[in-house]
Design a protein that fits this description.
Strand order of the largest sheet: 1-12-8-11-7-2-5-6
Strand content: 15-25%
CATH architecture: Alpha-Beta Complex
Low-confidence stretches: 1-23
Number of helices: 8
Radius of gyration: 19 Å
Order of helices and strands: EEEEHEHEHEHEEEEHHEHH
Number of strands: 12
Shape: globular
CATH class: Alpha Beta
Number of domains: 1
CATH topology: Spore Coat Polysaccharide Biosynthesis Protein SpsA, Chain A
Helix content: 25-40%
Largest sheet: 8 strands, mixed
Length: 273
């Protein structure tokens, strides 16, 4: 498996001429990126009858809080929300008009992540040059993090956000006894967005076949195709909501940030949610 290239300059990097300054500082070229939001997971660790993607964060569904980071970007030409088959009709009935108003396309996902992403890839418009895949359960990603990983992907063809592991890592037997302590040197936890040049990602998924080996993220699919994946340093605020307690933490992170300078949802959209 090819080793990743790692950028150490972090998010929000610009050249000396301020290139990339747009309505949101650092945005990439207009109309290049299709964003896929997989929201078909069962979220079994989240608990409760309500699925994680539809749980409320500050009064709005989690998936919407995540979508808000992308729908107003000038470098995003298409946004796709992929939901579980059993949620498709309900999502369209409850949120369909509002999502359509915001230009979000809803598609049916699958039982596993790779099936959900594969279904969304079939809906990508002609002319899209890059594809970004971002977890519906990561509502705290910042504009600076998005800008940085978009920019790196346009240089290398494949880039993801990631954070270095900081804790002490133990390999544990089935009996819950420590077998060994693993060095955390050069170990990183992958995050999203994960961004790829269109031909690279489509080619990698085409090689999967109907019974692929287990892949827990899209970068792993691309790695197996032989293309190196670059890493852009992120931080722990880009958390993935896993349990209900994470909603409280996510709300605190969002509230601690300065008010966004870009356009908010329109009055119609706000009223309808």
């Amino acid at each position: 498996m090819p080793r990743p290239f790692i950028r150490h300059d972090g998010p929000g990097r610009r050249d000396e001429n301020g290139a990339g300054d747009r309505k949101r500082s650092g945005e990439t070229q207009v109309g290049k990126v299709c964003v896929i939001i997989p929201a078909a997971g069962k979220g079994e660790r989240f608990g409760g009858a309500e699925k994680k993607a539809f749980a409320k964060l500050d009064g709005r569904p989690l998936f919407l809080r995540t979508l808000e980071h992308f729908i107003r970007r000038e470098d995003v030409c298409q946004t796709i929300l992929a939901v579980a088959p059993e949620d498709l009709s309900g999502t369209k009935a409850m949120y369909g008009p509002n999502l359509a108003f915001m230009g979000v396309q809803v598609v049916e996902g699958g039982a596993q992540r790779w099936q959900t992403v594969s279904a969304a890839l079939k809906a990508i418009k002609e002319g899209t040059e890059y594809i970004a895949i971002h977890d519906a359960a990561r509502p705290c990603v910042s504009d600076e993090q998005i800008n940085a990983v978009f920019t790196e992907a346009m240089k290398t063809g494949a880039a993801i956000l990631a954070v270095p592991l900081t804790g002490t890592i133990k390999h544990v037997a089935a009996s819950m006894v420590v077998e060994k302590t693993i060095s955390r040197e050069r170990l990183y936890e992958a995050q999203t967005p994960q961004v790829f040049r269109r031909d690279i990602l489509l080619g990698a998924y085409a090689r999967l076949g109907s019974t692929p080996e287990e892949a827990t993220d899209d970068a792993q699919v691309v790695e197996r195709s032989g293309h190196p994946v670059s890493i852009v340093l992120s931080d722990s605020t880009n958390l993935k909501v896993t349990t209900r307690g994470d909603l409280t933490l996510a709300a605190a992170i969002l509230k601690a940030r300065p008010a966004r300078t870009g356009p908010r949802l329109g009055a119609f959209e706000e009223a309808q949610w």
